Amino acid sequence: MRICTAQGDERVSGSIRRSADWIRLAMVVHAVVVNLLRLDVAHQPVVMIVVSSVMVAWSLVMVLYGRRNCRRRRNLYLCDIGITAVIVALSGPVLGTEVLRSTTFGLGGFWMLMAPVTLAMYTGSAVGAGAGLVLGAIQFLEAPSLDPRVWTHLIITVTVPYLVGLLIKVNNEAIAERNRSVATAVALEERERLNRIVHDGVLQVLAMVAREGHELGPRGKMLALLARKQEDQLRTTLQDKHVDVTKGEYLDADTTDLTTMLEKHQSKTVTVSTMAGHVSMTTDRAKELDRVITEVLSNVFKHAGVNAKSWILLEEEKGQVIVTVRDDGIGMTPERLQAAADAGRLGVKESIVGRILSLGGTSTLDSAPGKGTEWEFRVPLQ
After folding, report:
1. What is this structure's pTM?
2. Where are the beta strands (DSSP E) in the chain?
């Protein structure tokens, strides 16, 4: 989790950063005032003044340059932790053990919290808490005591950065979820608008061609079958609430339900059978698998004819999905497949087998002349 990235709303992240800057300045003022009040009891008052000046100067550096890009900010935050650790380590020699134990405040006071808090905002709660533990342990070991005022500071330096990092993470996740919801609502509204346009135009034309094309002879009959198939696929896609028809993508940016994805291939010549419930896969992997299925069905249409029937079966077994695509076409021989590859037609090798391999899966082809073709794909869900 990085507050400087595009996660969440930039205005909210900017407000949090500005608030942290103001708190840092307030804490450095508090630390300087406390140090001035202890100037007469410190073992090395001159060094105390120098250290206080360094804290003020470094706080200004963090405020002025802490809003740079992530790459530079990473090094700046590491320097912030290092400088804070040095100042905390000087508390014992400069103040003296007795003064440090009696006041429970090191040279940095509560200002020392800002380094792990800022780191937690950038890298996450665990890293921030770890940095706070290191700083708190340094100060505790300089004047160890069972006095609750002493070890309570150690607890604070751990819990406060952890809490801040956790709040930032929850905030960014909530904003990201809100943005996804807004994007989904906008996409669905646009879908309804396109539905009306497509229904009043394209679908009516396809329906008319499918209905009257049979009267135009053999070529008209083939055209009618094509129009009917395209009409079925278009209706299925428009009715699929998981698909953003404006971008050709799935509305859920993270995962896709494979059962819904495959059902969009259902038509008069394609039968889809899936199990009950949802089978979730990351959207990128699901899209790649869908391209494979589309390529197989396209080959059925091109080589087996418009009247060929196809069946798609989806199964889930031990962390993987099994997708079987079978048709009743003319089939093929291995020699014919090899000849196509030798001729430079790599549709099967690249678009089907290659994609399945890239998903970490396996593909099996079973075909014979006159007996149709059957593909079996086994792809891990993760």
Report:
1. 0.51
2. 243-244, 249-250, 255-257, 270-273, 280-282, 310-317, 320-327, 362-367, 373-380
Report the largest interatomic distance among the alpha carbons of the chain, rounded to a whole angstrom. 108
> If you count them, how many residues does the chain have?
382
218 class by beta-carbon count within 10 Å (0-12 exposed, 13-18 middle, 19+ buried): exposed
Q: At 69, is the secondary structure helix, strand, or coil? A: coil
- Give the closest residue to 59 by CA, choosing from 27, 16, 105: 27
d(CA 60, CA 24): 9
Secondary structure element (H or E) that encloses residue 94, with its range? helix 91-95
Cα gap 242→257, rounded to integer Å: 9
pLDDT in tens, 199-209: 566 666 777 77
Strands 362-367 and 243-244: unpaired
Q: Tokens 């009040």 label which residue?
A: 37
In angstroms, the CA 321 to CA 11 distance is 42
Cα–Cα distance measured from residue 42 to residue 106, given in angstroms and rounded to the nearest whole number: 11
* 103 contacts 38 by C-beta, under 8 angstroms: yes
In sequence order, what are the beta bridge partners of 315?
322
- What are the E-state strand segments in 129-215? none
pLDDT in tens, 239-291: 555 555 444 455 555 778 888 788 878 877 888 888 777 788 888 888 888 88
CA dist 250 and 254 (Å) reads: 9
Q: Whole-angstrom Cα distance, residue 45 to residue 35?
A: 9
252's enclosing H/E stretch is none
